[in-house]
Each structure stands twice: as C-alpha cells, then as structure tokens.
Amino acid sequence: MAFYYEEPSRTFSEYLLIPGYSSVECVPAKVSLETPLVKFEKGKEPELSMNIPMVSAIMQSVSDDRLAIALAQEGGLSFIYGSQPIESQAEMIEKVKRYRAGFVVSDSNVSAEMTLQDVLRLTEQTGHSTIAVTEDGSPNGKLLGIVTNKDYRVSRMTPDTRVKDFMTKLDDLVYAQEETTLKEANDIIWDHKINCLPLVNKNQELVYLVFRKDYDTHKKNEYELIDSSKRYMVGAGINTRDYEERVPALLKAGADILCIDSSEGFSEWQKLTIDYIRRNYGDRVKVGAGNVVDAEGFRFLAEAGADFVKVGGGGAICITREQKGIGRGQATALIEVAKARDAYYEETGIYVPICSDGGIVHDYHITLALAMGADFIMLGRYFARFDESPTKRVNINGSYMKEYWGEGSARARNWQRYDMGGDKKLSFEEGVDSFVPYAGSLKDNVNLTLSKVRSTMCNCGAINIPELQQKAKITLVSSTSIVEGGAHDVMLRDKR
Ligand code: IMP
C-alpha cells in the first residue's frame, strides 16, 4: 500500500513569524547575514561561505557572467547555467574571474582614420563619452589617443573630420602601466584631475580604462564575495551526463564551486557524478547536489558526499505538478530536510548546509526560509527582473517586463535537468516561457530585500542566521488571516 502523509504539504505563504524579545543591542545595522556554503566539521570553519544568504538560479534566463558579477559585489553567488555548450559556460566563468572591479575593458573604440560622425554614432549607441583611439580600432589595440566630448565641437567641425585631427594624442595623455593597482590608479586620477586613466601593456596596447566614478561605486561594495586572489567568486551548474568533460573545463576556467542541476536529486546519477569528482579531485572541489524534498533524499546526498544539498519542489515557472503530479510544498520540504540535516549533524558532527531553491514570492519568504533552517536561498524569478539578468526588457501594454523562462520549457530545452536516463531530448515541457515585471538594478533590490530580512530578524531577537534558527517562533495561518494579512477593508488610493 502507498504511504500517506498525515499533513498536507505547505508553502511559505501559509506561515508567519511571531515577534520575540529584542534587546537594544539587536539593531539591523548589527545583523550579520554570513552563512556557510559548504559542509564543515563541528568546531571548524567552512572552507567557503557567503556574506549574504542568496544565490541565483542555474537558469539561462537568470545566471550569466553579468549577473554573477553584480551578485558577488553584494556578497552572494551565481551558479552560471549549464544548459549551454561547455566552452561558452567556461567563458562566462572566465569573464567573472577576469573581471577586476574598477578596471573596464573599453567597449567604445575607433581608429585614427575614422571620423567625427563615427564618434557621434558610437556615443549615441553606447551612451559612453570616453572613446579609445587604437591603431586597429579594437579594445586592446595599440593606444594612439582618447576622444571625449571636450575634444570636439559639433557646431564648428564637419562630420568628416578625422579622429587623428582632434583626439588627445598619447603624448598629451596621462596613462599608466597595466600592473597599476586600483588605489594607485585613483591617486593618479586625483593628482592629474582627470576622469579616466588608460592602462597599457609594455607594447603600448590598451588593456583597461579606470574611471573616477567607478572607484566610488567600488568602495560601496562592503560585502563583496571574493576569493583569495581578490577575484569575484562564481559557481557553475553541471549535469549528470557530460561531467567528465564539463567539470575539468569549468574548474580550469576558475569556478569556485559546482552544483548538480536536476529536478530530481534522489538518484544514483547524482552519486555517480559526486563519485567522479571525489575520485579525481578529492575534497578540494566543492559540489552541491539536489533537488530533494524529504529526509531520505537529503541523507542519500549527504552520504554520497555533497557539499551542500538543494531542496526544491518547483519554482514560479514550474508546471511539473500539473504535468506529472509530483512535487511538494516548499515549506514542508524545507522543514523536513532541515530536521534531517540537524539529525545528521548530531550523529556525524558534519554540518551540511541546505539551500532552499525556488518559490520565493515575497521578500519575507526569504526570512521564513532561513528561520525554517535554510542556510541560503536560490532565486530565479527574483533575479530575472533586474537589469543585470541576461534576458530582454520589453514593453508590454505600457509596462516594462523582462523575459523569464524555465529550464524545462521548450525554449531552454534543458533535457539533462529532467533526464531519467532515457533519450537525449526533452519529451514534454515542465516549465513555461513568461514575463516578469522589470524592477531595476540588482543592487537596489537586494539591499531593500535584505534590509527587510535584517529588520525582521531583529523583531525575532536574532543578530545572525543561526540565532534566528534557534529563536524563531513560526505559526501556520488560517486562510482568513492570509486575506487580512494585506491591506483590507479599505479602498487603495494608489494601485500597488
Ligand atoms: P523561482 O525562484 O520560484 O523562480 O524558482 C527557481 C527554481 O525553479 C530554479 O532554481 C529551479 O530549481 C526551478 N526551475 C527552473 N526551471 C524550471 C522548469 O522549467 N520547471 C520547473 N522548475 C524549474
């Protein structure tokens, strides 16, 4: 006979936190959101941790190099999507690792033979007013000069005037060698009262531009997540099919951590993938596994050697439940797995972090997930709304939207994520292709979300995540109180 659960499976919106005692010491500015990313032994520190408990979903419409840089700047981590050729995924990883905050590869370049008209067109297209003049017009060609809007007067010059006749020539430019540190570059910028400093290599080829304005932005990233060489940290999704080729390439590109991306993690395929990594790299290479939704699944992956375990019963774009009638409410799944993780810790002395993946609709769901035992949260829809996500921003009926599609949709065709060992194809869809409301920059939104998380943690009397997990009091809410939880019995003046 089939096993029947006594309780229905529940989602985050069915729960609320109950305020606890908070002392005067417990203020949002003092709250730490630091959290472990990989397993560790009792009494020891995890080898990798994050400064905020947020990671971005392993999805084409969410995690590319641009989003990864923006999220690492805020203290979180992206897992670059694996449903792409190995070479392009490795290239995205390399771009994150090569990125030096404050050092920009020039993307507006001309050759000296080009004209004022070319300069104006480029400025219009890119919105950039500093244009590098290189021998071949490429970003890393031999530097001949710089053009800014101080070098030309459109009303006094003809459009066919050659760049070489009005650019600021190299001899008159302040520039420095590529080894210059950001601090030194900024001292030069200030000493010479310039806005931009080109850095060149020993062959006089342009390597980077350092802008005065970027230094100020860089200084603001107090939580940035960096490795021991001060490069941004980045993760990568892998699958249980081509790991023998993909894993070495991603590691060579500099990936800090891997995660097996699957809708069904309680499977021998995951164990085989982890075995391959342990056989070839020992414990040096970190790999998360999932998704699971119950204690048995957690134990299986913990015993298989996963560095963290991902818990997920489906996200905003998920149609697995209607297609296959399988899944579990995210809150119930998380609560059960967190109990299993604590029992495993008690028994073995090894703490395996858990990641709650998908289903975050409101910011407070993040706080709830942490309180229920998640060490960090994976979000797809949330990040897809921002400027930095890889998808197009479109205007629909007067409102800006961003595209967001599931890995199991016909658009992504990520058959490996749903692979049960059959043909190499996606037989039916488990996700949709959709739009989400455009929401602006990642930085502004993450800061706002986390200010709410910190504030709620203080309401619960918790100054860090482990304390929240110990002190949180959580209640189920009735359907009436869910309705009355929002503005009710009033007529809103502004549409929200
Ligand atoms: P969200 O934050 O609610 O948008 O959920 C994101 C999560 O949904 C991802 O991290 C995946 O675990 C999951 N997911 C991604 N694509 C699909 C799909 O096509 N079908 C079902 N689940 C998906």
Could you tell me how far the N terminus lies from the C terminus, measured between alpha carbons in angstroms? 49 Å
Mean pLDDT: 93
What's the story with the biggest beta sheet? 8 strands, parallel, barrel
Radius of gyration: 25 Å
Unreliable spans are none
Number of strands: 24
- Assembly context of the chains: single chain
What does this protein look like?
By secondary structure, the protein is of the alpha/beta class. It has 15 helices and 24 strands. The chain has helices at residues 65-74, 86-98, 116-126, 182-191, 212-219, 243-253, 268-281, 295-304, 320-324, 330-348, 363-371, 381-384, 442-459, 465-471, 479-484; strands at 15-18, 35-36, 40-41, 49-50, 54-56, 77-80, 109-110, 131-134, 143-147, 168-169, 176-177, 196-200, 206-211, 235-238, 257-260, 287-292, 308-311, 350-351, 354-357, 376-379, 393-396, 399-405, 433-437, 473-476. Helix 1 packs parallel to helix 13, helix 2 packs parallel to helix 6 (243-253) and helix 11 crosses helix 13 (442-459). The longest helix has 19 residues, at 330-348. The protein is globular, with a radius of gyration of 25 Å. The model has no long low-confidence stretch (mean pLDDT 93). Inosinic acid is lined by residues 57, 59, 291, 312, 314-318, 320, 357-360, 378-382, 406-409, 430-431.
